[in-house]
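Dear colleagues,

For the upcoming journal club I promised to circulate an example of a predicted protein-ligand complex. I picked one with zinc ion because it came up in last month's discussion. The inputs are reproduced below in full, followed by the predicted structure.
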Amino acid sequence: MNTISIRRPDDWHLHLRDGAVLEGVIGDTSRHFARAIIMPNLVPPVVTTTDARAYRERIMAALPKGDRFEPLMTLYLTEQTDPNDLEDGKNSGLITAVKLYPAGATTNSHGGVRDFDKAMPALERMAKIGLPLCVHGEVTTPDVDIFDREAVFIETVLDPLRKRLPELKVTMEHVTTADGIDYIKSAESNLAGTITTHHLIINRNALLVGGIRPHYYCLPVAKRENHRLALRAAATSGDARFFLGTDSAPHVDPLKECGCGCAGIYTSLNTMSCLAHVFEQDNALDKLEAFTSLNGPAWYGLAPNEERISMVRQADPVAFPDKRDTGAGLVTVFDPMFPLHWEVVET
Ligand code: DOR
Ligand code: ZN
């Protein structure tokens, strides 16, 4: 197969940032994707409906002329989140989900939740009104090894929370372990998971072998090969509980290439080409559309996009820029370490 046509994809987990970086990167998403769930971890974070409305306007103002793109806004859950504000945000159509960052889990997450009891009024309201919770599924306790953070989170935080509030719809974001995949599969309802492009392609060797490679550093950190294979199997299976959330997370190079580099991999620019490669390798090109364009909308109760995109397998490797130039500096584009032949040709 050298050509595929699929419904226009959506990205169910995206960092667009603000200001010059937003302006520099948004076209890489809007070129291929119709909608994206926009992460709220700005400085300061997007915590109220008013914040989200203003951020949405800045995103729309930064869109390249002529691009049609719908940002699906999220709020950053804090111990002070007002349940009425969440409900108003959902009812007005502005808010699609609420994001839970355990305090200290990742970039700009110090205002996240420490004491879940304090966030219960908001979580209970979300369960009642059907507003999904997107979780960054890692514990942050210093005694837990960073490679075990996801498995420990499932056991000590997520499972108890889901038992306490079975009606709450939870998206486990950027699943990185076989434990996460198994947990999602074992749930009877109200649980789904996003998988990133890069976690389908790299394991932890990419980060550490032959030198420390900051552009492969993200959170949750890439795990062992057996975990990557479990993610690949889930993504390419067509199972409706798994769908694309790129977690494309631009940081300008000086913030990555330094003594304490930021977590985040920038994949928006070549994600569709990387994914077509992965699905082709696994003889599952016929499942690509489910992963990028069907399962996500179904989970969020939205119609899939009517428009389509076409992808062609070129004989020669496609040349992608290795940096995205933003007004704030250069952002390195994800290098999958193999040549990419699939190209989006029509959007
Ligand atoms: O690698 C990551 N980068 N993981 C996250 O959870 C946050 C993100 C960011 O905002 O840079
Ligand atoms: Zn993220």
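Two points we might discuss: The CA atoms of residues 197 and 271 lie 6 Å apart. The longest strand covers residues 70-76.

See you all on Thursday,
B. R.
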